[in-house]
Amino acid sequence: MPTHVRHYVTGDAAALIDVFVRSVRGLGPRDYTAAQVEAWVSRIGGPERTHARCSDGRLVLVAVDAADRPLAFIDLEDDGHIDMLFCVPEAAGTGVADALYARLEEAARHRGTARLYTEASEAARRFFLRRDFKVLRRRDFELGGVAIHNYAMEKPLASPGPRREDGR
Q1: Whose CB among 106, 129, 136, 143 lies 3.0–4.6 Å from 39's, allowing a Cys bridge?
Q2: Which residues pair with 116 in a beta bridge?
Q3: In this structure, which CATH number among 3.90.550.10, 3.60.10.10, 3.40.50.970, 3.40.630.30 belongs to the domain 4-114?
Q4: Is 138 strand, coil or helix?
Q5: Tens of pLDDT along 72-87?
Q6: What is the DSSP letter of 80?
Q7: Cα–Cα distance, 132 to 156 (Å, whole number)
Q8: Residue 137 pairs with which residues in a beta bridge?
C-alpha cells in the first residue's frame, strides 16, 4: 500500500475522525468488548474539536494514499507524549504505522526530546513494545461508565551526546 507521510492540514479533521472511528471499531474488537469499543468511539468530538486539537502546537503526521486520503495518523506533544496513533483496518500491518512512528521518533530526537510516553491500547501496546517502549503499568478506568484499560508506556531517547574529534 503506497503511502506518503505529511503534516496535518486544516482539511484533514473530518477524515481523521473517520480514521479514528474505523480504527477503533475495526481493530478494537480484537482486544475489547463491544461496549468498550463504543465507549472509546464516543470520546471523539466533531471536526472543530479535532482541528483545534491538531492545531494546538503538537506535531501531527498523517499517512495518506496516492489520492491524499488519510490512512493513519500519529501525534507528538511538546513533552514527548504520543496521544494518538490510529490506522484504518485495511492499512493495519502494511507498514503505514511504522512509517508514521519512524518520522515521529526522528522529529522527537531532532527536538531533543528526552523520552516518549503514551497510554496504549492492547494493540498499540504490542506495536510500541516492538519499538522498545516499556510498560510502566496497566491503567484501569471508566469511559462513559464502561470499565476499560490501557497501558502507561515510555521509551527513553538517548541523547546523541558530543561527537569526538575523530567524528565518532
Answers
A1: 143
A2: 155
A3: 3.40.630.30
A4: strand
A5: 999 999 999 999 999 9
A6: S
A7: 9
A8: 152
